[in-house]
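User: Modeling request: complex.
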Amino acid sequence: MTGDDELAVAGTLLAADILDRTCTSRAIMDQVTTRWGTLIIAALIKGPHRFSQLHARVDGISQKMLSHNLKTLVRAGLVNRDVEPTVPPQVTYSLTPMGVSLATPLTQLIHWFGQNASGILEAQAGHDRQAGELSAARH
Amino acid sequence: MTGDDELAVAGTLLAADILDRTCTSRAIMDQVTTRWGTLIIAALIKGPHRFSQLHARVDGISQKMLSHNLKTLVRAGLVNRDVEPTVPPQVTYSLTPMGVSLATPLTQLIHWFGQNASGILEAQAGHDRQAGELSAARH
DNA sequence: CCAGCTAGCTCACCTTTAGTAAGTAGCTTT
DNA sequence: AAAGCTACTTACTAAAGGTGAGCTAGCTGG
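Assistant: Request completed. Predicted assembly structure:
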């Protein structure tokens, strides 16, 4: 098993103070890796999108939350906001170079969940089954 | 600039349906990568911890949220919960093999934020300065 | 000339989730 | 008998998020 090796590598990479509440990188991570923030960036990996395209692509997001999260990402310098002064105006969002560099680790994380979703589902089912047996045994 | 290359690599790795609201991996990612879930796993990378140790280590978390998130992670099969029936009882939490494999991409993401926190802080400051100038110009 | 259409938001209202503080169990030490 | 320890719950409150309606501004069809 290579588990311990991976753990050691991960440990050395880990920023020492991410667990400290006053750490700036933790505050920024909280702002960016929200429920919708990661999905918006994931959608923009495929290329620039307009507001309504993102609204359709990021399934389930409300316009309010899309607008709010885009503002945060633009302010953080991860996303560009380009307005074409046509009528009605066309607003296009795209990743900045910094946003692109974030896309790599973020995509690996998403990829991990794609690979391990079924494993987690099984673990959850097993856990629930065991809990059910225990509560049944108590009666 | 290698931005486009990174983007292409990221695009191919990206699970096709993470943006779909019915996708199971998205539901699971929502459960695990919460504000505290990532930090708890990050803390456990360094080795097993007891409840009170985690409470001290993950700065700012309440006992309620620690308990709740640990339950979720245990149910997902990412964290082990071992009870020593001493008095008072000692409960030790540690990463499962699946938890260890998640630690790798998660650590890379945390590492990215460690590297780019200052860049984002600058971008935010620049963005706010520009907004201030614009609103000043309007008067 | 003016109602209607469009994209990209913004606002008011309500529900769900997270945070705070206090309480609980069972046993030990003082 | 009183206080403390660990690992939690529970009740209450604050913040985040969801829903649906409305707004802007100019162009187009009637």
